[in-house]
Queue: 3 jobs
Job 1
Amino acid sequence: MVTSCWVKGCKNRAGVNKVSFFRFPRRPENKRQMWIDHIIGQESRLTSSEGSDRRLRLGKIQEPSNHDRICSDHFITGKPSNDPLHVDYIPTLKISLSTTEAPNKISSVSRKKQRQSDLALGSGDHHEGEKRKEAAKALLIMTKMSTPRSSSSRKTNPQSKWCKQKASQTAPDASFALATAKISHLEKEIALLQNVNSHLRSQKQTFEDEIKRSRKMAPTPEDPKKRKIDNESGDMKLSDDCSSSSLLFKDFTLKRVLREDPRSKTISLHGTLSKGEHTSASAVVLLERKPFEVSTLEDSLHKARTTETLSNDIYSTHDAFSAGISPDLKATVICPATEKHISKYSEHEPFLVRETSDLYKSVTEPCIAQSKFSIQWVYNILAKKSESERIVVEDPDPELGFVLLPDMKWDRKNSDQLYLVAIVHKHGIKSLRDLNMQHLPLLENIRSKCLAGIKEQFGVPPHQMRVYLHYQPSYYHLHVHFTNLKLDSPPGSDIMRAHLLDDVIDNIKGDPQFYQKATISYVLRDGDELYKWYKDANYFEGDCS
Ligand code: G7M
């Protein structure tokens, strides 16, 4: 028998088309059902009828047998994955081709499964099953409602009364078990769909890039401005819209490599960028190698040119020239850049400071007061003049409120690299040093709402998050960093700079004046303004113990 694909409308056959075929998984049981439900669900979205469906028997779609297969065309990476959070845990590509089925017939497989699951739960009584489902639905909605959200969504829900009634009308244990199982199943599906979503987005971007390349779009002179960050004027635009690629660095003149780190594959450059026909401006450009884009990797490899650099028995190494299908560099541009920006991204000698409460008052605080480093970009975010479309959670309360949004360092593609920053609405809280008892509600509000929002929107649970403040921060308006634990040592997450938010809260609870009294250690670099103040105060002349 010729092996063919179970997806309706897919014409792939073994030996005819260059595709691989995969069995329906036997275990875990819900994975097999997820495949069937997803395929049938997607097919049923189309109502057009063309051709016959060979899977029909007596007007119903039969469950796939041991001989039935799905072909590699329906998986983003070309094969199924065993990881429930992987995009190819279920087939998702090219599913909604066509169907001859009316939706009520199509759902017969699912209905049968539902009946089986009612029986498996020990009921067999249809009426009881319906009651349980209603209770489960009620509990499910209640669970969703009790999840902390941004203040704007915290309204009284009219469903709430109905839910409580329904939930209490049924045997609480059975209905609770059913609802809990359903919730965990749905949570897995949500995580899965989030992954599918991000892979499809990156694929879309790749195709858009390819169309652009094939049209050989000429760079437009005004394009470069779109991706520039101008910290002096405070005007910043970060855009995900790649429909306007340009040759931003075509006229970049390199003056100096400021810093290079082969381990993190980053480099910072100082040079000039053209600002119109005859003018150019000082610019700091930070370049960083991006992580691999799995969805385009295979295609990229097919087109990559390689040069062998070593060969020994079964081992060989090669220099590969990537085909440039997906972007492989992230560039951050500061233009026009001041001497301070140049200094900030240059290589400098590190020096340890143990800042006592007296040193804070006599050296650090006056230095911060005189600092002219613009934080207009922060005020732009708070006033929704910049990056408003990137806001993840906002609490507008003037005392307890904040804006949570992706940090400039995160490209928002991969939640393993998640990096967000929460900036408080209240002005005047410069840093950790200003925090005392009266700020506990603010800190706890940020902690709970941001972690809930991150779980809801990116599927990363609180126990996989690293939440901390910097001391010294790079700007003196209170903000909190939220990074995924899987993100390996993000800059500033080391013991010389990061203070876990949970520890900060506990320290203040133990002593309301903790951060006004504590001696805090940190590293300054000889290019920092604060370093100069400490040097002028002869701090580095003596023994700093
Ligand atoms: O705590 P510290 O001050 O070191 O951290 C500041 C954080 O703000 C860094 O992680 C920066 O990457 C981030 N950041 C800096 N700028 C200029 C911007 C910006 O314009 N937008 C966003 N979203 N984050 C920024």
Job 2
Amino acid sequence: MSSTGAKVAVIMGSKSDLSTLEGCFKILDDFGISYVKRVMSAHRTPAEAAEFSASAAEQGFKVIICAAGMAAHLAGAIAANTVLPVIGIPVSCEPFNGFDALLSTVQMPPGIPVATVSVGKAGAKNAALLAVEMMALADAALTEKLLAFRKEQSDAVRKADSEL
Ligand code: RP5
């Protein structure tokens, strides 16, 4: 177990990424997943990032979510030191609006995967859902919650359709 018992670590490259991650935290809360939030930077605090990822499995984490903007190397740097699944969220920043972070996060060299989700807030939600799906592989109750979530989502679309 991690010192907090958390299963997911959500790491952001800067506190300025926090607002992008609100949807990620909400989904993890809704599914009852324990997580920690950390600020660590591949460039500004590289030693802390390496130390954290090297000990993350030992601490009991199952999945690591990383959000970063600009030349976003955080997810890759974290993935370099662990075989836990790492999910990367490219954060949108000026002047390239996340295209820079998308390429930096998704274009990992073969051998060190990062599961890259959409840029920005949509990606933050999908990162949380993907983390839940990974943990649901060994948790039938979590699978049931995911199926209920999908049904609710489909029902909301059908309701919107019927109301037009
Ligand atoms: C990245 O640079 C961070 O993840 C953030 O998205 C971006 C800008 O950082 P700040 O200048 O706002 O700290 O490393």
Job 3
Amino acid sequence: MRIDLHTHSTCSDGTDRPGELLAKAQAAGLDVVAMTDHDTTAGWLESENSLPDGMTLIRGAEFSTQEARPGGGTMSVHLLGYLFDPVDPAIMTEQARLVAERRGRGIAIVDNMRADGVPITVERVLEIAGGAPVGRPHIGRALVEAGLVSSVTEAFAGYLSGRGAYYVPKIDTDLDHAVAMIGAAGGVSVLAHPWGRGAGSVLTPDRLAALAAAGLHGIEVDHPDHDEPTRRTLRGLAGDLGLIVTGSSDYHGHNKTLELGQDLTAPESLARIVDASSKVVAPIGPVAA
Ligand code: AMP
Ligand code: FE
Ligand code: FE
Ligand code: ZN
């Protein structure tokens, strides 16, 4: 069974509509796909309504969270939530806050660029986002359209870099709070790419142990941002701490150079995720039966 538990559609910063994404997943030979758009469950209904025969859908989201840095400031950490109640009041309130936060912050980044003579507009970026929570990849597409870079990935190395002149941070949810919030909504929390892109500096083995004790269910070990030694170490830690190990592509359509099913989750891990959920929200499709 081929299981990919982390993908993004046009409901956040991917480029395929949920239905297109699921059709491509079926063509790629996947049996189970999780829809995990950033800070929203807006794609759940279309995913359910366009689920190809024989496939199983896991409804989820990728929560934007933050963790204090020992030297001061914060580090962004992504937390996958699966099978949580989408109308849980705490989650709805926090997602609404983040959607507004993302919009204001996206506009501020574009304003910084425009003040420096970069010829893109807020209107075009919001049009590209198409009502989805605004993310840097949407600004990246505007930069590609303006001929300033040849790809979104190239934009991230310069214009959109977190260390660049135009960057504006957003205020994310405290990580401990997000773990508790997902658990209280009957869901299952899995740290996304914990040692990719710098987060490893705050997500130390001791911190992972504390998070596991506080209700974190799993960690995404097999992710394109993790090399083999990183995966081996994380797999060992997960074993020691009783955490569920997952693997996924983090597919974003044309916004990233990743293929659906590039990394996969074992069926035993999926079974543990379903078992750990309150079952108020269940998988849809053959695996649920
Ligand atoms: P934001 O959430 O607005 O801070 O933007 C971060 C998002 O940009 C991540 O969720 C990824 O989807 C995407 N991203 C980060 N780094 C890269 C990169 N190097 N190339 C393409 N997309 C990236
Ligand atoms: Fe993304
Ligand atoms: Fe992520
Ligand atoms: Zn992601």
